[in-house]
Structure formats: structure tokens, C-alpha cells
Amino acid sequence: MSTDPAPSTAPPGDGLAGAIDDLPLVDHHVHGALAGDLDRREFEELITESDRPIPSWMTQFDSQVGFAILRHCAPVLGLAPHADPAAYLARRAELGAAEVNRRLLGASGIGHFLIETGYRGDEILDPAGMARVSGRPAEEVVRLEAVAEQVVAAGTDAAGFADRFAAALWERSRTARGLKTIVAYRHGLDFDPRPPAPAEVTEAAGRWLRAVESTGRIRVDDPVLLRHLIWTGVDRGLPLQFHIGYGDPDVDLHRGDPLLLRGLIELAEPSGVPLLLLHCYPFHRHAGYLAQVYPNVYFDVGLGVNYTGARSAAVVAESLELAPFAKILFSSDAWGPAELHHLGALLWRRAMTRVLGGFVADGEWSEARAVRVATMIGVENARRIYRLGDATCP
Description:
Blueprint: H1 15-21, E1 25-30, H2 40-45, H3 64-73, H4 85-95, H5 97-107, E2 110-116, H6 127-134, E3 138-143, H7 144-154, H8 161-172, E4 178-181, H9 183-186, H10 198-215, H11 223-236, E5 240-244, H12 262-268, E6 275-279, H13 284-293, E7 297-299, H14 302-308, H15 312-319, H16 338-361, H17 367-385
Parallel strand pairs: 1-2, 2-3, 3-4, 4-5, 5-6, 6-7
Helix pairs in contact: 1-16, 1-17, 3-16, 5-16, 7-8, 8-11, 14-15, 14-16, 15-16
InterPro entries: Amidohydro-rel (IPR006680), Metal_Hydrolase (IPR032466)
Protein name: Amidohydrolase family protein
């Protein structure tokens, strides 16, 4: 007797592609869209992970993400596909940021946003603003390092830092769905995985406070304190996200391999807290391995999908090689231009249709199973992990 799920009920001719197009995706790691208008230089600087000035002899539109914007976002703004960059930006300016955001976020088909607010949060729409513009629920993911820096900015001594941070984290995350750490940026993933002793935390907090006093710069990058933030986050009990792999030049990429987290993963396993590895490119196969062998590990290929554009189907295909499908999620990691939110969803849907459709065409999968896997990855896994069916947060 066949154990396949019931056949797809999609209308004739729609099948797998129609089912994937209709998914109300949960974007489990994303940032807000910019509320203000952008000139060409500002726009181009926001469609690259580089923090360097763009050389005068090139344009960021000549890239996979640039071509994807001109191909897929132009029609949403009322232009023909493959518009000229100047025409695209002129149309964008004509419509204004509010209308551009409304169109692109609406056309994304994202059904629920989990918004990480820790990076330049005053420049982007907050969860309430994203919900207002998109017409879809938007809830918060709290960045651990941002909370620690707020505690120091508000005033503390070294001995009181740990307790003040714990109290602040619980208050800031009272209605949040998850937490995030950027330890990959601030130190690298090759840190001692053990929780630091209280005396170590106090000593490290003292070093940090003295550095803040001498430089005026509040930035937590001490490995002892970063470990303390992570373990306090584990104690909080919410799903905990880790930036992995590709990002701006502040990341030392060879120290961003998720295999370096094995010790922490094993120590955190008894807590039952889900550890979510974000983006992972070019280490997404490593993340898939970890998700296969450890029950508390999940991953996505978010950021890599936008920036690989026409090649994103290859990245998505590689993400499906080892991990159980219940351990993979969708994210866009979009920040700023709403084009990135729209493309994150569109390119993922297209990639899943091509990859899973190939499995079906080859006779390896049934269409019903392909629809079920796409639904798990795009919607159901995030709803389970972040308890999105709950009226209140944990």
C-alpha cells in the first residue's frame, strides 16, 4: 500500500508551481524596509554586502542581485522586465518609498515576518510599521548584543552587569518570538563553548566598561561576555538565531563556519532550545550536516538566495541534500530596500519549484510529497519552532 500523502488539490495546470506560489511564507529572519526615499548611490550601496564606496567605473546593478531587481521588481513597479537601471530608479522615485514598499511587500506573498531590530533600527520600519505596510503579522526577534549595549549605555557597574543584562533581556523579549546573536561578527564562532563563571563575567564587564570610558564607543566584543550573552539567551528559552557565513566585511569568513559551533550545540542540547543557523553560504552544506545529526539545530540559506540571483536554485538544491526537511526554514534577511524582501520570497519560490519539480519529473518524488516539503520549509517549520500558533509568547 502506498504511503504517499493524498494527491495535490491544486487546480489543473497549477500543480507544484501553483502550490508554492500560494504559500503564505514565514520569513523567520528579516529586517524592516526603509521608510525614506533613496538616491542612486544610496540604493546601490544597499544591494551589496560591501561597506566600501562603489568605484566610479562600475555599478552594483551589474550583479546577480542587480539583474534580479531589474527582471523581477520592475514589473511590480509598472515597468517592463529588464528595465534600464536609470528608468527603474526614476520610477521608484516617482512612486515614493511608501508606495514602493506597499507594492513590493504585498507582492512578496510573505504571510508572517519575524523582524530582527538590532541593526540600525531607527532607520527602518519596526514590526508595527512592517505589519501596517504589508497587512501581515510582524513580530520581533531581539539581538542579544544590542540589549547588552543598551544596559551599559543606561549605566551599570561590572558586578551588576550580569543581573542587569538578564533582567533587561527578559523585559525586551517579553513579546518577542526569538533571540539572535552576532558573535560571528564580534569575535568568530571559534569561541570556548562553556558558560563563563560569574567571576569571569564580572572581570570581563570591568574591562569593557573601562574601554567604553576611554573610547566612548559602546560595542561588546569580548569573547567572555559574548559567551555569557549566548548562555543567558539559552536560559531565556526562546529560539536562538546565529549569523553564519557570508555577510559584510566585518565578518572574518573563515571563522564563520558553523562546524565551529559543535561544542556549543552539544552543551545546549539538553536545554531543548532550538539553535537556528542563518544564511550559511558558503557553508550551507556544513549547516545541513549539523541539522541532520543534532536535534536542536535548524538552518536556512536566506541571504545567499538574493545575492546569487539566477543561480539561487543551485544553492537551494544544495541545502536539500542532507538535512531532514523538518529542519530547514525560509528567510530573506532583507534589510532596507523592499526589493530585497520581494526577491527573497520570489527567488526562493522559483528555486523550490525548479528543484522539487525536477525531482518529480525524474520520478524520484511524488508531486504531493513535493508540495508537502515546500509547505514545511516555507511555512510550517517556522510556525512550529517559534510557536506562531500561540496567542502569547513563552
